[in-house]
UniProtKB/TrEMBL annotation:
Organism: Streptomyces pakalii
Gene3D superfamilies the UniProt entry points to: 3.40.630.30
Transmembrane in keyword set: no
Protein name per the record: GNAT family N-acetyltransferase
N-acetyltransferase domain ranges (all copies): 4-171
Length: 173
């Protein structure tokens, strides 16, 4: 299998709604999802609390020459408080099955850090399920450290799962 060729990361636009919704549905797993599996009728991907301005996407060219969205990352302020305005939080990352192993996740994490810096943040945080070993390894390799664990915070697929809080400095903004 030929690895996809990554294109540049770009902000999401409203026209990405269908592609992102399909990506979200096709990658749903209890490895990372705390909400039930999406079922028809499907809601739009973008809504009042999840606008295109919160997302970065990366496109990639597949072996057959087609270009598609290979993944997305959501980056938002963790709270509306002025005292917390120096922080951004990753609240979602998905990589298309056909694009896994090509560096899409790493590209998106690095892009989110750069975008957070551009927005004036000097810190970035996230939450990841304790059993999501691949995601935790990616975040650790990009400088995120475990800053707290909420033991058994979620009950998924018949088991209690920890919620792991991770974060890192972005340096002076």
């Amino acid at each position: 299998m030929v690895a996809p060729v990554l294109r540049s990361v770009r902000p999401a636009v409203l026209a990405d709604d269908d592609a992102l919704a399909e990506l979200d549905r096709s990658t749903w797993s209890t490895l990372h999802a705390v909400l039930p599996r999406p079922a028809p009728p499907y809601e739009p991907f973008f809504d009042a609390g999840h606008g295109p301005e919160d997302f970065l996407v990366v496109e990639a060219e597949q072996a057959d020459g087609q270009v598609g969205i290979a993944g997305y990352i959501r980056l938002v302020p963790p709270t509306p408080l002025a005292s917390n305005a120096h922080v951004r939080q990753i609240r979602g990352l998905a990589v298309a099955t056909w694009a896994r192993g090509a560096g899409v996740g790493r590209t998106l994490v690095r892009a989110a850090c750069a975008e957070a810096r551009r927005q004036g943040a000097n810190r970035i945080t996230l939450r990841v399920l304790g059993h999501n070993t691949p995601a935790r390894a990616l975040y650790a390799s990009e400088g995120f450290a475990v800053e707290g664990v909420l033991p058994g915070e979620f009950f998924l697929n018949g088991a209690y799962v920890d919620d792991v809080c991770m974060g890192r400095s972005l340096g002076p903004a």
